[in-house]
Structure formats: structure tokens, C-alpha cells
Design goal:
Domain Pseudouridine synthase II N-terminal: 23-178
GO biological process, one term: tRNA pseudouridine synthesis
Number of strands: 20
Strand content: 25-35%
Order of helices and strands: EHEEHEEEEHEEEHEEEHEEHEHEEEE
Helix content: 10-25%
Organism: Bacillus yapensis
Number of helices: 7
Mean pLDDT: 91
GO molecular function: RNA binding; tRNA pseudouridine(55) synthase activity
Low-confidence stretches: none
Radius of gyration: 22 Å
CATH architecture of the largest domain: 2-Layer Sandwich
CATH superfamily of the largest domain: Pseudouridine synthase
EC number: 5.4.99.25
CATH topology of the largest domain: Pseudouridine synthase
């Protein structure tokens, strides 16, 4: 069995919990997810089965879309609704729609984020949340991420109250912390804030509407029809350039042989999908680091049948 399972992750489970449960349901070990979702966040979690685990990083690299809610008026230790209150400041003025839209516009594009202490980022070989649980504060590495678009999902013209909450939709690059984005929105408006709700609605080309639940997976597995909901490995590579080869080269590619960089791909810095005339992805190639004019496989997706 191989392919990409469009799973809906429920709240209350970690991404690893989902993988663990799927291994038992599907009775297979080679399963991996494509980007951690926090336990209190639900939504799209593409799961790679079998050889599809080789392309998990390309799903992660394709970007994600979330719908969430920011609450202005207090911040928390975890930057979301599950943490303890760190700072509280009653909102004593009104925010206009234009003011909030301007704030969201200013946070669009490439921005610098510092991961929250309660996150899986490693510092000196230890995850930040491990330090946080011990009450140890460590210096966190900042990272550049890209916010492609933020939309305000609230029709009000004036936002007021002791706390102010509003919903938003954000499309972003991998590595973006939406919790931290909510805190940054609050800072731009002059108040402590946190992310009070979040759902991932899209990962690569997989949307919330495409996803099935663990209960549905269990039912399909019992019926022996799980394959009908799996997406092919090629669907994870939709945004990469494709190089179609003839039958004579297919066996060489399956054996991991370096190839001349074809005309039209000389300026490609990123990966290239080498595929058959019928669109089957055989391997992912990149420019050879030592031999000019050649490209070598970084991942071979189809190997000799005898192997």
C-alpha cells in the first residue's frame, strides 16, 4: 500500500497519535505525517504511506492555509488558549476595521518570527517545550517565514470590548507559527494577545473537504477499500518542474544513474521530477554538486521490480 491519505486530525490528539493509530488500523509501519499540528488544533494532516514517505517534505514545502481566531486583551505562556495567562490589559479603545486591515497588511510578506517556548524547535539537541516544562528560558533562534495572504473573516466596522476577538484566514510558508502571528497582531495593535482557535484548512493541494476521519479510515480498512481514498505520490509533486524521459532511460533512473541536465532546465536551482510519458514519477533530481552539467537523484521513487 502506498499513497497519500488526506486525514482530518481531531482536537485532543497529537500528529504522532494519529500516525500510531493508523499503524494499528492499516497494519503497516511505514507511515509518516507532513507537518506537526498541535493537539488543540484540528484540520488537514496529509499522511504518507509506504514509498510516499519519500515525498513528505514536498507536501510540507508547498505551504499551508489556516482559519483561526486572535483574542486581544491577554497573552498566555503557550501563545494559545491552553496556556496560563502571562499579561492582561483591558482593551480601553475601539479598533476600526481599517486599522485591523492595515495591521494584517503590514504582516504580509516575509516576516521574522521567534518560535514560542512551547514548540518542538530544538535548541542544543533538546526541544523547546522540554525546557519550558522545566521552567527554563533559553535563547530561541529567529526564523524568516512568508505570509502569502491574510484575510479578515469578520464584517464589523468597529471592534470593541474588554477583550476583542476576530477570525482570520492565513496562507503561509512552512515553519510559520500561527500562535506567534496572533501575538504579533496584538503587539502591532498595542495589546497582549493570543491565538484562541485554529483549524488547518489546506496543506499543499489537500483541503478540509477532501479529508476523512480516523473512524472512516477504520471502516474503509475493514472493507479492504482504503486504496480508493489514497492520492498518488505524484500529487505531492504538482508544483515541481517535470522532465519526461524515454523508455531507454527508465531503467537507468531506477538505478540512480546521474543524467545530463536537459536543455530548458539549466537554470533550475530546485528539484526536478523525472517522469515517464504516462506521468509516473520515477525520481527527484538536482544539479550534481561536483560534476557540472550533470544532475543526480536525491530520491529514487521507483526501483527495479526485482529489488
Amino acid at each position: 500500500m502506498e499513497g497519500i491519505l488526506p486525514l482530518y486530525k481531531p482536537r485532543g490528539m497529537t500528529s504522532h497519535d494519529c500516525v500510531f493509530k493508523l499503524r494499528k488500523i492499516l497494519r503497516m509501519k511505514r507511515i509518516g505525517h507532513t507537518g506537526t499540528l498541535d493537539p488543540e488544533v484540528d484540520g488537514v494532516l496529509p499522511i504518507c504511506l509506504g514509498r510516499a514517505t519519500k515525498v513528505a517534505e514536498y507536501i510540507t514545502d508547498a505551504g499551508k492555509t489556516y482559519e483561526g481566531e486572535v483574542t486581544i486583551g491577554f497573552s498566555t505562556t503557550t501563545e494559545d488558549a491552553g496556556g496560563e495567562v502571562v499579561e492582561r490589559k483591558s482593551v480601553e479603545r475601539k479598533f476600526t476595521r481599517e486599522e485591523i486591515l492595515a495591521c494584517l497588511t503590514n504582516l504580509t510578506g516575509e516576516i521574522t518570527q521567534t518560535p514560542p517556548m512551547f514548540s518542538a524547535v530544538k535548541v542544543n539537541g533538546k526541544r523547546l517545550y522540554e525546557y519550558a516544562r522545566q521552567g527554563i528560558e533559553v535563547e530561541r533562534p529567529s526564523r524568516q517565514v512568508t505570509i502569502y495572504e491574510i484575510d479578515l473573516l469578520d464584517g464589523r466596522q468597529i471592534f470593541e470590548g474588554e477583550t476583542v476577538s476576530f477570525r482570520f484566514r492565513v496562507s503561509c510558508s512552512k515553519g510559520t507559527y500561527i500562535r506567534t502571528l496572533a501575538v504579533m497582531i496584538g503587539e502591532a495593535l498595542g495589546y497582549p494577545a493570543h491565538m484562541s482557535d485554529l483549524t488547518r484548512i489546506k496543506s499543499a493541494q489537500i483541503t478540509l473537504e477532501d479529508c476523512i476521519t480516523l473512524e472512516e479510515v477504520e471502516k474503509l480498512a475493514a472493507e479492504g477499500s482504503i486504496e480508493k481514498v489514497l492520492r498518488p505520490i505524484e500529487s505531492a509533486l504538482y508544483y515541481l518542474p517535470k522532465y519526461e524521459i524515454n523508455d531507454k532511460l527508465i531503467e537507468k533512473v531506477k538505478n540512480g544513474v546521474a543524467l545530463p541536465i536537459p536543455q530548458g532546465f539549466l537554470d533550475e536551482k530546485g528539484p526536478i521530477v523525472v517522469e515517464t510519458p504516462d506521468g509516473t514519477a520515477l525520481a527527484i533530481y538536482q544539479a550534481h554538486p561536483l560534476k557540472e552539467g550533470l544532475m543526480k537523484p536525491t530520491k529514487v521513487l521507483k526501483i527495479q521490480e526485482t529489488e
